[in-house]
Specification:
221 residues, mainly alpha, Growth Hormone, Chain: A
Length: 221
Amino acid sequence: MYVTPPPLPVTRPVAEPAWWQVCGPALTALIGLFVLTAIYRFDGRSEVQVALDLSDSSLLLIGLVAYLAGAALAAVAGLLLGARFPIAVAVPATCFLLLGVLCAAFADGSGLLAAGRALSGLGTGAAVGATVALIRKLRERRGVLAGVTGALAVLALVLGPVIGQLLAESLGFRVVQLTAVPFLLVTLVVNAVLGIVRLTAAKRAAAPASYGTPWQPAGSQ
């Protein structure tokens, strides 16, 4: 008599993330870094400071400290969860950043501006943490991706005040914030597509394998 043995539990190692998975959270992080410095200018008072009648200390607290505080809090979650659940981190991070940009764009006082900067910081921090966690898990192309992502991050920080000043002088500081909206919407689509591709690949990898010929115990007929 042929007896089919029960399937043995299979322990699969945690799959190494693919290099293209970095693109989702990295795009959000780069936009967030641009938004961080876009309200400033290299010379004189920024347009948002003039429009909302903010002192230098208020602009520092609202524009920078609130942003960095939110980023620091969310970066921890991004570092812990980003390598295993990059899309689950990147999509909410993009939504937080989008909401923060909209709050800052339509702010009529320091309160709403502070809330917008804090929300933007949460989104940026989570995306940066997820990007770093993914790159650290990579075995191939880690150095290349780290170098390219780092260079783009510095470029985003430097271009923020330049582009922000050019747009704000002619169109106002609110337009500077709103310019990030279409890029964030595209980033949401990119993250959704990457999530679908990752889920499809995971299902294929988890497909049950054939157990082959049924097991026949010794002495059975």
